[in-house]
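Dig into what follows:

_____
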Amino acid sequence: MHLYLRELGEPGDNSFRVVVEEAISGPPGKSARLAILPKNLGKLFSDARPIISDSSCFSYELIWPAYVAYAVRNESFATVADKQTYEGTWLRRYSSSLFLDFVAKGTWADRSHPGPFIHWGLITLNHIVDIASVNAPDIRRFKNT
């Protein structure tokens, strides 16, 4: 499964909302782009499939009622750090991360106020969304139309 970021924003003061949409590998097909590639590259990509969202896919709304910080990165520029520890695949819960270090240095938030917070990472095809929050997100799943 893949995810696309579809919406993000603050539905209320200092709350954070994200909507992601599932995507799947579509059917193989001829692409006009393949025709312009040199023959050896055309063969390499001949089994390529588009990544699509269709009516079989679901969308997910994640809402954090409060947050300390959030950031959105273009996944093309995201680095992979060896010293990060997390659980999860597309929604990760980090116990140590560069984002937690950034929040610790850039805010006065700590364990006493607002309380122990967690770094949540949402990994999508084109974006990485990082959220530091005391709360886990409320998640709602709905069918694409």
Q: What stands out?
A: The longest strand covers residues 16-25.
